[in-house]
From TrEMBL:
InterPro entries: DUF3137. Keywords: Membrane, Transmembrane, Transmembrane helix. It comes from Shewanella septentrionalis. This is DUF3137 domain-containing protein. The chain crosses the membrane at residues 75-92, 98-114. It comes from the Bacteria.
Length: 360
């Protein structure tokens, strides 16, 4: 997909996000919700033991932040006013406009919030490995990335020249491997790098291959879908909730409907809503090809930097968000496998019936 088309696609995602935030409130009351597996008392005790030493670090960083905030209010204007005057003089002199005042303001805000960012990162690195181990067969790496080469020829994957990644999680659900990371993809522009994608990426490797190439994308309308390069025939599904949020394209209409069973659609809708709520998400897209499933969730926040520096470290109210994400991802994996095994069983039964008919 070209950078121009991808930029247009992102614009349609933003508009779609507004509509979906409205439709989210109108989801049916009986719409299925993923149930969270409760943390054992042993797991909670181990997490609290890790969190206890962080309390002093939290207080130190909170005090530093509050002190910097106070000094920024008192002296920040000494930096901002001269910068603003320079911008106005440049504008009045018919020179190229400058944004020095914005740069200075951004620098001050970064300086004030840096202690909080340091605390969040430290908290995440301490807690995530232990929490993931308690939740299942998962491994955590702070700065690794998913295997992008394995999905390089996927339609959803934009062209890029630079990548930044963090919070890499990999593991297995039964015999299906998956990996996740938060990823930023950039391409070189004439003046600066352009962000082609920012959000979370999930890659699943199935023990079987899909019989058709299917893409599930945000619904941008007929014009937007054409600009986004979605050229496969559109698949009509029965779920009103799913149809309001997604467009499905595949060369095999029948197989696409089998692939997107009601249970799979329910989990995808729930995952999409989770990204919107917890990370200011703007859209979820899925691609099924060969033996891979690629999920790309565009969002502007950070899914795991949810800890509040103003709350004591023993407060674990944010931990269920991570549980929710893992439950939904593993639920999609399990459902895809169940549907595949059910189809295999049906095919075997039909074959045996044909053999009996021929033998009779």
């Amino acid at each position: 997909m070209s950078p121009l088309l991808y930029s247009l696609k992102q614009g349609f995602e933003a508009l779609k996000s507004i509509r979906n935030h409205i439709s989210e409130a109108n989801l049916p009351a009986d719409f299925p919700r993923a149930e969270l597996p409760p943390l054992s008392e042993d797991a909670k005790a181990e997490l609290l033991q890790l969190l206890a030493p962080l309390e002093a670090y939290r207080i130190e960083k909170l005090e530093t932040k509050l002190s910097r905030k106070k000094w920024a209010k008192r002296l920040g204007w000494l930096l901002c006013l001269p910068a603003l005057a320079f911008d106005l003089i440049s504008l009045a002199s018919n020179h190229d406009p400058t944004i020095l005042s914005l740069i200075v303001l951004a620098g001050i805000l970064m300086w004030v919030h840096l202690p909080e960012m340091q605390y969040k990162r430290h908290y995440k690195y301490k807690i995530l490995p232990v929490l993931l181990k308690k939740l299942g067969d998962y491994r955590y790496s702070p700065d690794s990335c998913v295997n992008l080469d394995s999905v390089a020829d996927f339609e959803l994957m934009p062209r890029f020249s630079k990548q930044q990644s963090e919070d890499h999680i990999r593991g297995k659900v039964e015999d299906i491997s998956f990996e996740f990371c938060e990823l930023t993809l950039k391409s070189r522009g004439s003046k600066s790098d352009k962000i082609q994608f920012k959000g979370g990426v999930v890659i699943m490797t199935m023990p079987f291959s899909f019989e058709s190439h299917t893409v599930v994308s945000q619904d941008y309308g007929s014009l937007g879908n054409t600009m986004a390069g979605l050229k496969k025939p559109r698949v009509k599904l029965e779920s009103v909730t799913f149809e309001a949020m997604f467009e499905v394209y595949s060369h095999d209409q029948h197989y696409a409907r089998y692939l997107l069973s009601p249970a799979v659609m329910e989990r995808l809708v729930e995952l999409e809503q989770l990204f919107r709520k917890t990370a200011r998400g703007s859209g979820l897209s899925i691609e099924f090809k060969a033996n891979k499933v690629l999920i790309m969730a565009s969002y502007f926040g950070n899914l795991f930097d949810t800890v509040d520096i103003n709350l004591p470290t023993h407060d674990m109210s944010k931990i269920p968000q991570l549980q929710q994400e893992l439950v939904l991802i593993t639920g999609i994996i399990k459902q895809l496998k169940l549907d595949y095994l059910a189809a295999q069983n049906l095919a075997t039964q039909q074959t045996l019936e044909r053999i009996k008919t021929l033998a009779g």
